[in-house]
Amino acid sequence: MKKLIFGLGLLMLLNPLQAADGEAALYKVEGGTKVDSQTMKGFRTWRAAACDRCHGANQEGMVGPSLIASLKVLSKDDFVKTVRDGRLEKGMLSFNTNPMVMENMNQLYAYLKGRSDGAITQARVEEIK
Q1: What per-residue confidence (pLDDT) applies to 1?
Q2: pLDDT digits (tens, 9 = 90+) for 71-87
Q3: Is residue 19 included in any domain, yes or no?
Q4: Domain boundaries, position 74
């Protein structure tokens, strides 16, 4: 019985997809590298916007901060505000005129949150078939 309870607890910790309040999951990941179609749009948006130039190819930071660390504490609203409006005083550009980023903001957040949560184990992902 203890093994069952431990296993269920571990499963809950390792699977942050399940929303506690019954909401739809933010992302779906299989094997750490395969993601649902919406999260894949987030990855494609990340690549197209060239966010890696400042945040690093693995989102661990370069000139800009580590997004893996930042998304552990940054709310979704703060993430959206930062991406949309930028932080010019810190060198973060505004993406409010970039249609791809603005149209895929939720998907971009899901991809980066999955990376931050540890559910997505590498930067490059592929879509679940």
Answers
A1: 53
A2: 999 999 999 999 999 99
A3: no
A4: 25-127
Count the Cβ atoms, other than its own, within 10 Å of residue 80. 16
Nearest to 82 by CA among 55, 44, 118: 55
Q: CATH number, domain at 67?
A: 1.10.760.10
Residue 60 lies in a domain: yes
In-domain check, residue 122: yes
How confident is the prediction for the chain on average, in pLDDT?
87
Angle, helices 76-85 vs 105-117, to 10°: value is: 120
Strand partners, 35: 29, 127
Q: Is the pTM of this model over 0.70?
A: yes
Cβ-based neighbours of 104, under 8 Å, separated by 6 or more = 41, 42, 44, 45
